Every structure is written in C-alpha cells, then in structure tokens.
C-alpha cells in the first residue's frame, strides 16, 4: 500500500519578488533531501507545493522529518480521486468509517476553474454528505475536524491527516552566521531561530578541557547532531578555552572575568567567521536574564567584535525559550550535567555595569593575538549530516505521474 503526501511551502516564500524562483528551488531541494531514504518519489509539483508517493510503512518516519523541515508550512496525507463529487464522497466515506467528531467543516480549493461547481458549492454539497453520514454539525470556526479538498485539472485530493510544518526559510538562502553554542538551554534555540530565517549556521563551542572534563564537548556534539536535523549539514568547532581563562583569571579584576571571557569568545568566533565566510555572529543572550546579560555588559562585550552580533532571544523569557528548546528537541540534552567553562571560575559577585575602560586596561596586559592563535590551533572540527538513516525499501509498483497543473493555496 502507498501513501500520497502533499507538502505546502511556507507562505513567505511566495513573496520573494525576483528571487522567488531561487527561494522555491532551495525549499524544494531541502524537502526532497529531508525525505531521502524513505523511498518517497516526487509525483507532482506546483509553485508552492510538492506531492510525494511513498510506501505506507514510511509515513510515520516521513511525518517526523517533515515536521522539522524548514520552509514547510504544513503537510498532509491525501487521497487522490478523479475530479468529481461522487468519487470524493466515496473517499470521504472511507475516511469517516475510522473517525468520530462532533463538528467539522469542508474547505474546498479549486485550481481547475473549468470545474462545474464553485468552491462554496463543493463545500455545501460535501458538507451535507458528511453531516448525513455522521450526524456531526457544520462549524466554520474552530471545528473538531477540517476536511480540505483540492480540485485539480485531472484529479482531486482529499486531505485526511494534516500536520503543521515549522515554516521558515530553507537553509543557506540568507548567508552564513557563526553561532556561539554553550551547553545551556538558550544558545541552541538562538541557533535554530537563525536557521529558521534561512541562515546557514556554523557552531562554535568553547570548552575547558583539559583543565576540566570533556563533558561539555560531548553535550555540544549531541546538540549539534540534533540541530543538523534542521539544516541537514552542520559544522561544529570545539575550541579549547582554558588558556584564555587562565590568563584572564591571573590579570583581571575578579568581577570582570565573565565579561572578559565573552569578549575573547567573540574574538575567536569572529576569526572562525572569517575563515567560514560568515558575516555575523550569534549568541543566546536574553536581556537581563543573568548578570552577564545586562545592557551595560552586553555593550562592553560587543565592542570586542567587528561583525554584527545577533541575539535572537534578546526579548524572550526563560519559559518561552524552554518551550522552544523542548519543541526542537535540544532541551533534554541541555539539562544534562556538565562542567561548563565559564561557570566554574565565575565570581560570586560579577560586575553588572561593566566599563569598557577596565576591560581594555586588563586586555592591554594580555597577549590577545597569541591567545586567539592558540585557541584556533587546538580546535577540533566536527561535521554532521542528516538524514543518515539506512534507506527504507522502495515501493514495488509504479504509479503514473499526475499532470503539472496549477495548485492554488
Ligand atoms: N562555552 C561556551 N561556548 C560557546 N558559547 C558560549 C559559551 N558560554 C556562553 N556562550 C555564549 O554566550 C551566551 C550567554 O551565555 P550565558 O551562560 O551567560 O547565558 P545563558 O542564558 O545561560 O545561555 P545558554 O543557556 O545558551 O548557556 C550563550 O547563549 C552562548 O551564545
């Protein structure tokens, strides 16, 4: 048995003016790649949608993947019938046998303007049919069940199981950004937010090994592997930070340690950004969340970078960030215990109104260039690709390809 899956692209992709073909091509390639190994075959294609055919047993896996595929507005398992009402009623009846609901609506979308009935007429007729078969009431706003019917030139599609996608833009259409990845909850969400806007994200993690254990490196790797799901290929730079910390601990006023750590992190990340051809940096800061994230401290930290520093979570609170981390699957990894470089040597009373002059005066006693070079030399670079699963079996029989007519949203 086979399943047909209709994938609708994110509405914003339709608004890209002259770049529209480029954005759509990228989004479609990303969807196709996400389904690699599920034996999915492209059956038909429209400007804003793709129709795939896949073996029924591959549907649960395909569903999980499409839920995480950037650029996808939503997707549905669909039944294909000839484009007439009787055939649609038969398909509906088959679906109704497996369902119970108290209210419903039919939404008809007609891209074949030659079809003899208008969308409201189709909705009324099919609505009456479902009402008679189930006794459920029609409810246009907030029904328990919505049936979407699409009338195409040579076929009709009935959506039987619809799921939202993450929306967003496909990876790489907005250029490259280097994101600073700690072992915490926030920075993976910040990286994801940028991916969702089409940035190709390169990750950089600073670890205290060999001064402390390598736990934070393992966490960063696990998070990177999870984030690869959204971007399909991701690079993680694991940078030794203990020598920088040692020098800062020796030279800086205690209260300034964390601000100075952050300034060096930005400098090293910026050197990596130059290598990678990235035009911005990103962190998981949220204004006022902890002492190092006061406006004054962020200001002093920022002065160490020449590239723009994006902070996509600046206006988010912890509850919102945690919810998103759970949704993207990084939360469970982030809460594992580790020995994070900054917390262990952090002072009890960090400065909350840092002054740039103090930071600069301390740094004048440090060999910044050497520290950066040392960190870069000692780094390990890991790459993850996704999906990496073993291919699922291919379907046996061939089904003819549908016509390529327009498909209206
Ligand atoms: N060891 C590290 N490696 C890379 N980036 C780091 C590291 N520590 C902190 N950062 C960056 O600095 C930001 C602020 O870190 P901080 O620990 O102050 O805040 P946080 O709110 O706990 O963030 P997170 O939950 O991401 O750790 C992080 O979001 C991250 O982008």
Automatic annotation (TrEMBL):
It catalyses: [ThiS sulfur-carrier protein]-C-terminal Gly-Gly-AMP + S-sulfanyl-L-cysteinyl-[cysteine desulfurase] + AH2 = [ThiS sulfur-carrier protein]-C-terminal-Gly-aminoethanethioate + L-cysteinyl-[cysteine desulfurase] + A + AMP + 2 H(+); [ThiI sulfur-carrier protein]-S-sulfanyl-L-cysteine + a uridine in tRNA + 2 reduced [2Fe-2S]-[ferredoxin] + ATP + H(+) = [ThiI sulfur-carrier protein]-L-cysteine + a 4-thiouridine in tRNA + 2 oxidized [2Fe-2S]-[ferredoxin] + AMP + diphosphate. Residues 60-162 form the THUMP domain. Its main location: cytoplasm. Its EC number is 2.8.1.4. ATP binds at residues 180-181, 205-206, 262, 284, 293. SMART domains: THUMP. GO terms for cellular component: cytosol. The keyword RNA-binding applies. One of its GO terms (biological process) is thiamine biosynthetic process. It is found in: Cytoplasm. InterPro entries: Rossmann-like_a/b/a_fold, ThiI_AANH, ThiI_fer, ThiI_N, THUMP_dom, THUMP_ThiI, tRNA_STrfase, tRNA_sulfurtransferase_ThiI. Catalyzes the ATP-dependent transfer of a sulfur to tRNA to produce 4-thiouridine in position 8 of tRNAs, which functions as a near-UV photosensor. Also catalyzes the transfer of sulfur to the sulfur carrier protein ThiS, forming ThiS-thiocarboxylate. This is a step in the synthesis of thiazole, in the thiamine biosynthesis pathway. The sulfur is donated as persulfide by IscS. Belongs to the ThiI family. NCBIfam families: tRNA uracil 4-sulfurtransferase ThiI (TIGR00342). HAMAP family: ThiI (MF_00021). This is Probable tRNA sulfurtransferase. It comes from Thermus scotoductus.
